[in-house]
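Below: protein 1.
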Amino acid sequence: MWALTLISAGSVFFPGLFLLSKLTLRHMMGWEEGDAAVVSTRLVSSVQAVMASSAGCVIVSSCRDVMEDRHWLTDAYILFATPYFAYDIYGMFLCHWHKLQVKGHEEEQQQEELGAVRSKGSAVVGYLRREVLMVLHHVFMVAFCFPASLLWRQGKGDYFQGLLFLAELSTPSVCLGKVLIQYKKQHTLLHKLNGVVMLLTFFTCRVVLFPYLYYAYSRYASIPLYSVPLVAPWQCNLGAALLWPLQLYWFTLICRGALRLFTRRLNAPPKTFKPDHGGCLTQSNGCTQHHTDRH
């Protein structure tokens, strides 16, 4: 009964927060449907990430024995947050769908050039092709990680589960970065600072996380690091083998984007001054008066 209550609460909370945020942005802020839906989806993802990271901090700080110590928040948050991954598949589709409706958007232009019919059916196919890794990641979280975390670990390793919650610490900066790109704010100071935070948190909380899980257990069991996969449950090895390469792939994409932005700034042509008809040295962001002697 307790488990069903928490799952039901999560099933209501995350979609409800999305609808509340979207209605607020539309009716109180005057935003359009598409913009409100996209930003609301990012907001819900950020809220879930803050909640998961907070739960992770509490659990990790309270478990001295990494295998035997228990904390009630571990199972409780797993039950509460599992519906989020099912909701987020739909939320990501809404973002994809509304982007297709934006006039002049690149994806819309590509579909029009291909003669595709802009229906929800074709949009679903395009969404699954574009976000196949993310969709599979979410399905895996519900179908495999949910029973593995609640049943197969048999109440052991709350410390490691708390560390996995901390992986969500990078999500708010990822969401903010997507919103800034959507509104063409790539060259703002906020986008640059957020990019640094995103690189650091993603690398620390997602890339380094999985090797650290094995390292922490090797210290606990006083065995060499290379021996941990041999004694760890197969569910742990399978989960790490499937999830860690995804994090490495996404981190590579983030690094490519940062490098592309940095290279673009380095290769940007210097600002030049061109005299206009009135003897004025003009620049893209202003005009500097050029005085000449007339004889």
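Below: protein 2.
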Amino acid sequence: MGIWESEGGLRRRMPLRRAGGSCAVGTTSLGGRAMRYYRLWIYTCNTVLLAGALAFCGAASRTLIFDYRRMLIPNLALYQPTFLYAYLALATQGGAIQVLGCVAALRLSEKLLNAYWLLLLVLLFGDIVLGAFWTYKFEKMCQDLKPALRMRFQQEYGTDQDMTTLWDRFQRDEECCGVTGPDNYGNETGKFEMPLSCCLEPPPENSTRCIKHFQVGCDDKLMDYMKSTAALLAILGYCVLAFLKMCFLGILRYEIKEMIQKIRILKTELALPNANGAVPGTIRTESAESERESLLVRPESTALLSSPPTQSKNPNGNNNYEMREYRSGRENI
């Protein structure tokens, strides 16, 4: 009776199984436990890359897109091919690649994981090409800034209202006058009257002439703005974003490779029958204790449990018996 009760207790402690012998625990939970480390890596890389992309977008918007000084630089438009690629790359790093990586990690898809890694590689290659292009482009822009700015000033200041307003605002904010100095308002430009934006002190009443004016040209101020903006964007874009992508590519190269190998192993186990008789498409998820218990309820285990325990033999039992017979025989003699 005790044996059957113990067997029933073991059966009650066994995990429930579905029809067909499959375990009640699905393969999704096993995949989640097995891939938790790799998913954590992908989620971390996506989070850091998203933070870097948002920081770069904020800095670029503040110092380049919404700064009026950018419009004073000749031959600099926001619809250049390199800028269009930068918009696409930032949009990809600011949401699209994160969605792809998370979906690939959740679905355990080899194709999506490979596509995620290849997309990171393409973005890094694009950063390298873009950085090399703008290194050459920026040096050329710095060399051509003064002559191009002076030509634009002569052609547009006083005739183009937008250019005149922007230039006057720049002179007041930066405390400068003209392109190379206050002499730019001389005979060479035909603008004999110096604007009030060049005045160091307000002119007296009923007068439009400055008593004191700024002596520094605005080309150096605009050059400082260009260099500071380029340095900030280079640090965020190449020393942060590109470096992070390069590190993540090296780390995820091995992590994704191991993850794909484990996915294949899981798929192979799902396609083979279980040792306990489970149908294909299921895998065992019991713990080591449950496996030992499942072994105890097999037919051969039940037979072992139902058979009475055998008494241990004394290895010297036969010798003791022979000695007793020998002693009794001698006493009879």
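The CA atoms of residues 88 and 94 lie 10 Å apart.
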